[in-house]
């Protein structure tokens, strides 16, 4: 029997179609298997936490390290946290705390937090900064509640796409190990999380960051709970002559005209740092960030970025945004289109058009090239906008 060329094409097409349908069925079976596996791990995870009884937590010593793509340590910091002497239930609101961070690297800093103060010692310049503000207690209590609550770690596991779970033993102690991946657009982070089987508190977290067109970076975090902490660590001294910064968050920063592509008030993009110093005076903090020089003006609600000595970015901050040395006042002014801190996502779209999707972990950053403005949106509200 002789087949025409057309008949042969039909036969080949049917054969390829059959292969495609088989492959699709296999892919579908694989995805369903993966879904069932994740559902099974989720049930194990839920059962693991449901059997735990909250334990008293009164202290934490945490070691954190960041590594460059070549494996060298780029930064290291140690956290000491001390709660009430009698301890707290891990699922209760923290009534009091003391908190200290020691940073090592290009610029060493020690940061103290307490319910009524926030103090930074810059080891490079040997300067002290102190900021008093009412919201610090709420912010830090909430943060430490998140760390010390097994329920919070469970929420994090729920957020991750947990791929594997298995029991492990470390130094004679039993842990449940989770390997997971956080969702991202064009990038993702792999996590390995070891949870103490007795307390449901974390023992270690290892992260590997995969970003588009960048070599992977990693972090390691180790937690040591309920160990004695020397009270002297929480009591900074104030040498004579050191700078004190006090920011009144109850009042907004001064109003300045915002002109995208041009500047804010007297501050013009492209001007020299000497010119900005003549206008605003000495900043509350100056530092290098990824090769750019930055000046923070807490009372103005502004962060200025300089490249090669020229002003290239003006960042307008929301009330209470954190700097190394304290919190910013809220920047009150708006763009000519009426966009500013607190504007909704819908208002931004109405002013500038549809936004590119750059979502990550509940927040998004959108660069609007034609207007030379960038907005940061969290929970559908603008929390920062940048002129460049």
Described by strand count, sense and barrel closure, the largest sheet is:
11 strands, antiparallel
Please state the structural category. alpha+beta
Uncertain segments: 5-11
Number of helices: 5
Strand order of the largest sheet: 8-7-6-5-3-2-13-12-11-10-9
Euclidean distance between termini CA atoms: 74 Å
Sheet-strand content, in percent, reads 35-45%
Tell the overall outline: globular
Overall pLDDT, averaged? 80
Q: What would you report as the Rg, rounded to the nearest angstrom? A: 26 Å
Number of distinct beta strands:
26
Helix-residue proportion: 10-25%
Question: Your description of this structure?
Answer:
By secondary structure, the protein is α+β, with helices and mostly antiparallel strands. Helices cover 22% and strands 39% of the residues. The chain is built from five helices and 26 strands. The protein has helices at residues 5-50, 135-148, 150-159, 273-280, 345-352, and strands at residues 56-57, 59-67, 73-82, 88-89, 98-104, 109-114, 117-122, 127-131, 161-170, 173-182, 187-196, 202-211, 217-225, 258-259, 263-264, 267-268, 285-289, 292-297, 302-307, 310-317, 322-323, 326-327, 359-360, 363-368, 373-378, 381-387. The strands form five sheets. It has an eleven-stranded antiparallel β-sheet. Strands 17-18-19-20-26-25-24-23 form an eight-stranded antiparallel β-sheet, covered by helices on one side. It is globular. The relative contact order is 0.10.
């Amino acid at each position: 029997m002789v087949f025409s060329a057309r008949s042969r094409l039909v036969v080949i097409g049917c054969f390829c179609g059959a292969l495609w349908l088989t492959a699709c069925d296999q892919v579908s079976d694989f995805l369903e298997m993966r879904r069932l596996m994740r559902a099974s791990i989720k049930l194990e995870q839920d059962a693991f936490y449901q059997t735990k009884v909250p334990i008293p937590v009164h202290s934490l010593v945490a070691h954190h390290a960041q590594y460059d793509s070549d494996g060298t340590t780029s930064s290291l910091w140690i956290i000491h946290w001390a709660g009430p002497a009698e301890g707290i239930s891990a699922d209760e609101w923290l009534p009091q705390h003391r908190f200290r961070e020691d940073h090592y690297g290009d610029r060493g800093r020690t940061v103290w937090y307490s319910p009524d103060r926030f103090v930074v010692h810059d080891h490079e310049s040997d300067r002290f900064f102190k900021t008093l503000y009412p919201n610090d207690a709420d912010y830090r209590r909430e943060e430490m509640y998140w760390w010390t609550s097994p329920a919070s770690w469970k929420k994090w596991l729920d957020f991750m796409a947990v791929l594997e779970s298995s029991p492990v033993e470390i130094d004679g102690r039993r842990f449940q190990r989770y390997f997971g991946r956080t969702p991202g657009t064009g990038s993702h982070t792999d996590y390995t999380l070891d949870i103490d089987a007795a307390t449901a508190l974390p023992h270690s977290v290892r992260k590997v960051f995969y970003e588009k067109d960048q070599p992977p970076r990693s972090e390691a975090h180790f937690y040591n709970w309920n160990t004695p902490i020397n009270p002297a660590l929480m009591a900074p001294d104030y040498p004579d002559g050191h700078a004190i910064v006090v920011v009144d968050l109850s009042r907004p920063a001064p109003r300045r005209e915002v002109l995208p592509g041009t500047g804010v008030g007297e501050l013009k993009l492209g001007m020299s740092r000497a010119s900005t110093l003549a206008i605003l005076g000495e900043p509350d903090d100056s530092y290098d960030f990824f090769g750019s020089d930055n000046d923070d003006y807490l009372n103005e609600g502004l962060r200025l970025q300089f490249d090669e000595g020229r002003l290239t970015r003006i960042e307008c901050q929301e009330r209470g945004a954190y700097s190394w040395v304290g919190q910013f006042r809220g920047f009150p002014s708006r763009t000519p289109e009426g966009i500013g801190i607190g504007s909704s996502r819908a208002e931004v779209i109405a002013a500038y058009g549809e936004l590119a999707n750059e979502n990550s972990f509940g927040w998004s950053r959108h660069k609007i090239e034609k207007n030379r403005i960038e907005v940061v949106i969290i929970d559908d509200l603008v929390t920062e906008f940048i002129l460049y």
